[in-house]
Amino acid sequence: MANILDLVQPLRVANQLKVLISLGHGSEFNDIPLIEDNLATFAPSVKEFITENNLDGFDIDYEFPYFRDNHNFKEVAKKIRAELGNNYLFTITPNNTESLDGITLNTYFDYVNVQCYEYEKDRKCPISNFTQMEGLSKSKILAGEDIENKEDINNAVNKYKDHGLGAGLFHSKYRHNMV
Hints:
Blueprint: H1 2-13, E1 20-24, H2 32-37, H3 39-52, E2 57-61, H4 70-84, E3 89-92, H5 102-108, E4 111-115, H6 128-131, E5 141-146, H7 153-162, E6 166-170, E7 175-178
Parallel strand pairs: 1-2, 2-3, 3-4, 4-5, 5-6
Antiparallel strand pairs: 6-7
């Protein structure tokens, strides 16, 4: 990881790039139930990992499996944010709204990187699911487009700007948020 961080260090110093570790990406790499059951151990380990690896924050790539319920989602968000404090970014990248609520998203997360790809293999999750979510400020919502699958980037950026949102480009190997 040190080689990657060395390569991007000039951008980080200029405050043009933040490097986060992301948990998730579908059922093969998503341990939401395990996190819920071991939150007292997991939450401090997140801060330890990002500190030891000189990262800027932590992201939950929220696809499947889902949080058991809204209460568990709130507890996970609250405990991880408490561990990270305000010195590290804490984001969530959902492709659904299962167990989520706007007040918790707005209170504990720096950004909500919505996956609204709108092609057949992804679950459809309209931007309006988030822009109309009670308690969630539009300023926290970034909407993504999957450039790995050759989506039309110009159309995506314009679509999200039409909703008054920042736009992001997501790729399986990296994510770049343009605010």
